[in-house]
């Protein structure tokens, strides 16, 4: 064999040996990584959780998962709350429905599964709305805390309230289409059988509303939705954060502190947001009459007409049902979000 051929053969052998050694080293490193992860899974998880993009997205992911968990639990109560708000529209006197009578009527017309009508829309709403509002709030609070620590101060209630109001308003705009679809699906059973839309899912509802009424119809009732979200977030997140801060150092365990703070937050969230939730429901439920007009021209027109025709206390009728819907939802959401924040810190 020529010297040139021998040299080429030797070079090829050297390259093959180097490649084989490199592959062995990679395999050993991979095996060692797997072994290390098996021996200390928390470290492997922690390393991943502390990458910058994961840290930035975790408040949003945890918020969405918490909200969807709470909605699955509370959906039947939400269904009754919506039907209660829509009952007796435009009538000041007459029989007043109760949560029990509403539940009985729903079950009489169909089956127990009807209490979960609109669940797909509710889950989509939480995936969008709660993901955004808890994510924004947590992000704002982290920045406020860093700024306060740098100046040797503590985050005050006014700053917590501002973070809650801003996070709620931003999230409400993004989540309005899913919220509207939820109201349409839950109120559909109140219409005569021939007039019902019988939406198959939230996707079907969004597609048909967009096609029949225009894409902007998905943001019907956006103004009261935004105000309601700001009021709810102010009551829920600001008071939850403040209550937890006040309960630190008390004799209560960490779990009981969270439970107590979430119960306080649920009450204030219900009190501040119910009138706007009522108006939001009325505006999102309404469709055009045969003459092309709508029952309400907007948020303030709805406030005025309901006050005149049904009485000002109508806005707070069903407060107990609303609280039973909001408080447990707030408690489950905040507790799950708190737990997820703990395990992913």
Automatic annotation (TrEMBL):
It is found in: Mitochondrion inner membrane. SUPFAM superfamilies: Mitochondrial carrier. InterPro entries: MCP, MCP_dom_sf, MCP_transmembrane, Mito_Metabolite_Transporter. Solcar repeats lie at residues 54-143, 155-246, 253-343. It comes from the Eukaryota. Its main location: mitochondrion. Residues 1-42 are annotated as: Disordered. It is a multi-pass membrane protein. The chain crosses the membrane at residues 259-279, 322-343. Residues 14-34 have a biased composition (Polar residues). Keywords: Membrane, Mitochondrion, Mitochondrion inner membrane, Repeat, Transmembrane, Transmembrane helix, Transport. Pfam families: Mito_carr (PF00153). Belongs to the mitochondrial carrier (TC 2.A.29) family. PANTHER family: MITOCHONDRIAL DICARBOXYLATE CARRIER-RELATED. This is Mitochondrial carrier domain-containing protein. It comes from Phyllosticta citribraziliensis. The lineage of its organism: Eukaryota, Fungi, Dikarya, Ascomycota, Pezizomycotina.
């Amino acid at each position: 064999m020529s010297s040139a051929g021998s040299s080429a053969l030797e070079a090829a052998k050297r390259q093959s040996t180097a490649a084989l050694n490199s592959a062995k080293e990679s395999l050993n490193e991979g095996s060692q990584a797997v072994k290390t992860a098996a021996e200390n899974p928390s470290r492997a998880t922690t390393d991943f959780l502390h990458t910058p993009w994961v840290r930035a997205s975790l408040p949003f992911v945890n918020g969405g998962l918490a909200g969807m968990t709470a909605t699955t639990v509370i959906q039947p109560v939400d269904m009754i709350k919506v039907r209660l708000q829509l009952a007796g529209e435009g009538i000041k006197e007459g029989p007043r429905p109760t949560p029990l009578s509403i539940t009985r009527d729903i079950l009489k017309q169909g089956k127990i599964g009807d209490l979960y009508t609109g669940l797909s829309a509710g889950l989509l709403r939480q995936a969008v709305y709660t993901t955004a509002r808890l994510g924004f709030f947590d992000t704002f609070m982290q920045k406020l805390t860093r700024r306060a620590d740098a100046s040797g101060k503590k985050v005050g209630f006014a700053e917590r309230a501002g973070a809650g109001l801003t996070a709620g308003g931003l999230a409400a705009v993004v989540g309005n289409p899913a919220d509207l679809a939820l109201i349409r699906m839950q109120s559909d059973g109140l219409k005569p059988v021939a007039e019902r839309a019988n939406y198959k899912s939230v996707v079907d509802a969004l597609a048909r509303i967009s096609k029949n009424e225009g894409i902007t119809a998905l943001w019907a009732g956006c103004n009261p939705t935004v105000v309601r979200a700001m009021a709810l977030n102010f009551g829920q997140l600001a008071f939850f954060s403040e209550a937890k801060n006040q309960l630190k150092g008390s004799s209560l365990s960490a779990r009981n502190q969270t439970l107590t703070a979430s119960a306080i937050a649920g009450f204030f969230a219900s009190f501040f947001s119910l009138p706007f939730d009522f108006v939001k429901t009325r505006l999102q439920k309404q469709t055009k009459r045969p003459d092309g007009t709508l029952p309400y021209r907007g948020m303030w027109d709805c406030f005025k007409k309901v006050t005149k025709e049904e009485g000002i206390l109508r806005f707070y009728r069903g407060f107990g049902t609303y609280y039973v819907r909001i408080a447990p939802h707030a408690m489950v959401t905040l507790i799950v979000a708190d737990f997820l924040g703990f395990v992913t810190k």
